[in-house]
Amino acid sequence: MSDVRYPFTAIVGMADLRLGLLLNAVSPAVGGVLVRGEKGTAKSTMVRALAGLLPSIATVPGCRFACDPASADPQCPDGPHTVSARDERPAYLVELPVGVSEDRIVGSLDLERALAEGVKAYEPGLLAKAHRGVLYIDEVNLLQDHVVDLLLDAAAMGRSYVEREGVSVRHAARFLLVGTMNPEEGELRPQLLDRFGLTVEIAATRDPAERAEVVRRRLAYDADPAVFAARFAEEERELATRIVTARELLPQVVLTDVALRQITAVCAAFEVDGLRADIVMARAAVALAAWDGRTEVLEEDVRKAAQLALPHRRRRNPFDAPGLDEEQLDRTLDEHAEPDPEDDGPGPDGDGPGPDGGPDGNGPGGGAPEPGSDAPDGSAASDDPAVPEQSGGPARAAAPVASAGEPYRTKLFKVPGTGKGAQGRRSPAETDGGHTIRSRRPQGHLSRLHLSATLQAAAPHQVARGRDSRALVLRRDDFREQVRQGRESNLVLFLVDASGSMAARQRMTAVKGAVMSLLMDAYQRRDKIGMITFRGSGAELALPPTSSVEVGAARLEQLPTGGRTPLAAGLLRAHEVLRVERMRDPHRRPLLVVVTDGRATGGRDALERAGQAAGLLASQGLASVVLDCEAGPVRLGLARTLAGQLGGSAVTLDELRAEGVAALVHAHRNVSTTNRKAA
């Protein structure tokens, strides 16, 4: 790989991403930028290219935390700094790997030396290296939530904190934060999305000429990176100079009362939560003015700031796509713009819009269509082939697909035992977070000291070790680390019966609503999900295991129904999918959710074959839940029989609701209290 970066100015298109990155380069207080887009759209290339445009920084010689000689951090672990010398170096681009640990991010203390020698031996982490530079998080949506929280807290506060057994270290950590993600691989929680200042949606251009130019430039760069970079050297220098100029102009930019009123009005109109959006929009609008060389924020700055700062804050649940209504934005800006003193409305001569010519009239400017017309423009009929022709009688419409009912909070289903999977919110597991349950000898580097267990291990040997002072004599074998129990995320595999016995529309609406609720629960608990459907002659993997719950919801909405019930085929397909996933991720424990009425067709032995397939899954200790969808006055109990064969539990649609369970418990308590009083 070449050491010559791809030039920022050589990237074709993607104007919004370019602007979002440059605004953060001018004013890191904007809060970073989240880049959302499909794979292969040069997200990483542009972020890496930006680092080459940033001005070099002055540092204190020998300081591992990049302290500025002009204003050194008084809390710097390498301080206090009193030297007058200075070093110059480029601003660093620090890339965060997906599997990074908390200690690697914030740094770690050598607890053995801290206890045995009484010294603070601190090894800085990636946040210290990123100070006054760029922190780049590729695939930020694949990081564990507590890691993302830690990064965003540091970005918001400008400091990093390390606390280990009463030893505290803190240092400055101000950086330009850039995250990239592919929405197909799962969304960030709305709370985490809100912490990013700006967001940009990108997609590969569909213009053949632009695509050809992208390929042409990439091939030229691969052939000779140095020659290619030299072609854009002058443009790169001009852009770098413009960044420095905008930074110097930034303190002089005035945010007028009118612009501030427009900002707050837009945030209120779009009903964004909290006030972070208002602050980010104000900072982004000021940076836009400075970037354009102006000292006053204009309406166009507010509009562009809203387009970058608000779309990702519009999500209300995981199935909402980020977006912004441009017409509503323009309408709100117009309503709160500064009135024009020369605009006094229509004059006495009737120059303004009249009742027949303005937006409220029936003339060319707008209003209701002429009587008898079938379209707003007065045309007689639509050419849309989807519209049935009137002369030939009503057209036969396609069979409607049942929509999902409103999602609700469900019962919590857990995998029995204690796992070791990625942190989440479903099943018990040994994790980096959670509460301490026991101690053990360190496995590798000691990071979570169990102080009392360490002292207990060392105490019996103090006389033999010749202890002659108040200090303990510690050996490496004495140290114990904490074992913490928290919760892990799981693979929730849905096996959905889409056969004819489930096809009643009202019933399927309730079933889809139940599955949608379980999908929402899986999203909130950070699970991966997969979906298998079975109908007709076989089973289909409708959604391979993924972190994108949104895709699962979309597949569920489009789920067709009808035909036979090949239950055995569905169970065997689930067995195969889980076998493959176990090899890919052996630590992620699965939970099988079977949505069916328990019926099986396709021969006299259909139920017997289904029972054998269920036994195969049960023999592997698989955790399972059967959502019993049987309805009607006569019930065969086949779903509960299937649950027994799987070694799992069965719940009805009514029992699935968490509030229903809470109501039953509450009613039981009330009856018990009444009986006690009566006695």
Automatic annotation (TrEMBL):
SMART domains: AAA (SM00382), VWA (SM00327). Residues 335-445 are annotated as: Disordered. Residues 347-369 have a biased composition (Gly residues). Keywords: ATP-binding, Nucleotide-binding. It comes from the Bacteria. Residues 491-627 form the VWFA domain. Residues 370-385, 392-407 have a biased composition (Low complexity). It holds the Pfam family AAA_lid_2. InterPro entries: AAA+_ATPase (IPR003593), BchD/ChlD_VWA (IPR041702), ChlI/MoxR_AAA_lid (IPR041628), Cob_chelat_sub_put (IPR012804), Mg-chelatase_DI-like (IPR052989), Mg_chelatse_chII-like_cat_dom (IPR000523), P-loop_NTPase (IPR027417), VWF_A (IPR002035). Belongs to the Mg-chelatase subunits D/I family. This is Mg-protoporphyrin IX chelatase. It comes from Kitasatospora kazusensis.
